[in-house]
Write a structure and sequence with these properties.
Strand content: 15-25%
Number of helices: 14
Mean pLDDT: 84
Largest sheet: 10 strands, mixed
Shape: globular
Helix content: 25-40%
Low-confidence stretches: 1-50, 86-92
Structural class: alpha/beta
Distance between the termini: 25 Å
Oligomer: single chain
Number of strands: 19
């Protein structure tokens, strides 16, 4: 089987012939007359040109710099980007002139901040590219020149003064709770921000459709939409990006990628983990808002979208928006949703307590640790096909994949013994693999049927997901960012489920930790 990664390569790779043919940009896009941008030519958004997002970022300002997000994900992703950065002209690489500034309420000095950065950057040294041995030096230069400033991010004058102390363009990364991010943005309305400021926000974007719409209106008063990066790091994972190679670089699959041939689509993200110290956040969110409302709906959109003319941010995000606008719950919340919570059990080699007895959990919230919804995408391509999204914690095995189940053959000829099992394509997220389950002739007797699986490893990114996301931010390319209208649509799609669960109209089931989850039903069959 041909390696799909070899066919398509990485998301960012556009051949010289394609770039010549398209002139590097799509006609009618904002910013077409602006300067062509150069970024870290070999990976993710960094290697793409003709963006609408303006000049490359000069300063990355991290608000909430002392938090877990910054030290565990954001800074390590930045370090990997810096050490692997490849530009035909090294002087234009991300580390050539980037200023890193940390800010927060803690009374830190520059030395304390640099200790945090040093720890977060440490792992990147082993990923230095042999073709660019000076990558680690670039990362160290950014680290050594970084600084920290104590600030109340909800004080508009203090925050604006901090912004103006940075070299523009500034990317403001809100590594903060959503409510604090929203308050900071509201307080900046009416302030004069540095030219080409970018705002980078973590999910959840709002808490429902109305709050997401309000926040979009606030942000629109600060910067243009192409300067807003709503981060969903799932879109930066190589496994999700590899869907493009499988779908659009293989004529075999795309003609059958529709309601005429597909019986169902399942997107599953089951974790063999408990809370792992995240009770403060998770108990207020639950599996539905934490995983399905953001990550898995984005995966659905990528799986169900029509082929874009190019991997231009406008083309790509328009196609995703078309899918999400057409997506709705496949019935009433009682028919098309399910929620459950794990009870005490043994998971792997450890005992996991009842979720509602975990430290930091308020049992009265009735927070679910497993959520399932069935959706319909009302388009010509997908009418009538159920899309099941499921995510859960405390399960016996980790299962992170999208599964496309094709319809059975219309007729199985007489004389063949056995059952023609459904053809299934499994696109695994971690690790990135593709498995195609087929019915074939059995060994020994060619009239017997048996199941066989064709497997291939999908190409992996040289960057972690946050490295891919940051590459787009620093280059002013919003390709891997969630657009404002789709952020609202994701809340709209699940609004009936959220309301029904809050009204206790859908029972909260239970399952033992370490099991496969609640018993299957006709509405939520096992496959």
């Amino acid at each position: 089987m041909v390696h799909p990664g070899a066919i398509f390569g990485r998301l960012s790779r556009v051949s010289a012939h394609e770039e010549q043919a398209t002139g590097g940009t799509e006609s009618g896009r904002g910013g077409v007359d602006g300067p062509e941008q150069s970024g870290g030519g070999g990976h993710g958004a960094a290697g793409r040109k003709g963006h609408t997002g303006g000049d490359p970022v000069a300063t990355l300002l991290v608000l909430g710099a002392s938090g877990d997000l910054a030290s565990r994900l954001l800074l390590p992703g930045l370090a990997r980007l810096l050490v692997s950065d490849r530009d035909e002209d090294p002087a234009h690489g991300h580390g050539s002139s980037l200023q890193l500034v940390g800010a927060g309420s803690e009374d830190w000095d520059d030395d304390r901040w640099r200790e945090v950065v040093t720890g977060a950057f440490a792992d990147a040294q082993q990923h230095v590219d042999d073709d660019r041995p000076d990558g680690w030096e670039a990362a160290c230069a950014v680290r050594d020149a970084s600084r920290y400033q104590q600030v109340d991010v909800t004080d508009p004058e203090a925050l604006n003064a901090l912004l103006h102390s940075c070299t523009a363009p500034v990317a403001v990364y809100f590594a903060l709770p959503p409510a604090v991010t929203a308050k900071a943005c509201e307080n900046l309305v009416g302030q004069e921000l540095p030219e080409s400021t970018r705002l980078v926000m973590e999910k959840p974007f709002g808490s429902d459709e109305a709050s997401a719409h309000h926040l979009n209106e606030v942000v629109a008063q600060l910067v243009p939409e192409e300067h807003v990066h709503r981060v969903d790091h799932f879109l930066g994972t190589s496994a999700v990006l590899n869907v493009f190679g499988v779908r659009f670089a293989n004529r075999l699959f795309e003609p059958t990628w529709n309601a005429g041939h597909v019986e169902r689509v399942d997107v599953v993200y089951d974790e063999d983990l408990g809370l792992e110290g995240r009770a403060r956040y998770y108990d207020r969110a639950g599996a539905l808002k934490d995983m399905i409302q953001s990550h898995l709906l984005q995966v659905l959109a990528v799986l169900a979208m029509d082929a874009p003319a190019s991997l231009d941010e406008r083309e790509f995000r328009d196609r995703k928006a078309q899918v999400l606008r057409a997506t709705r719950l496949a019935g009433t919340p009682a028919e098309a949703s399910r929620r459950a919570v794990y009870t005490a059990g043994r998971m792997g080699d450890r005992d996991l307590p009842d979720y509602q007895a975990e430290d930091g959990v308020d049992p009265s919230r009735q927070t679910e640790t497993l959520a399932e919804v069935v959706l319909h995408v009302d388009t010509w391509r997908w009418a009538g096909v159920p899309f099941r999204l499921r995510s859960g914690k405390g399960l016996g095995r980790a299962r992170k994949e999208a599964v496309i189940t094709f319809k059975p053959v219309p007729h199985l000829m007489g004389g063949l013994r056995g059952e023609a099992r459904p053809t299934r394509m499994r696109l695994s997220f971690k690790p990135g693999t593709i498995n195609l389950d087929l019915t074939v002739n059995a060994e020994g007797d060619p009239f017997d049927l048996e199941e066989a699986t064709l497997s291939a490893q999908l190409g992996d990114s040289q960057l972690p997901a946050y490295g891919e996301v940051l590459a787009g931010v620093l280059d002013g390319d919003p390709l891997l960012s969630v657009r404002g209208d789709t952020a609202e649509d994701c809340w709209r799609i699940l609004a009936p489920v959220i309301a029904a669960w809050e009204a206790d109209e859908v029972p909260l089931e239970t399952y033992p930790a370490g099991s496969d989850g609640p018993d299957p039903t006709d509405a939520f069959p096992v496959f």
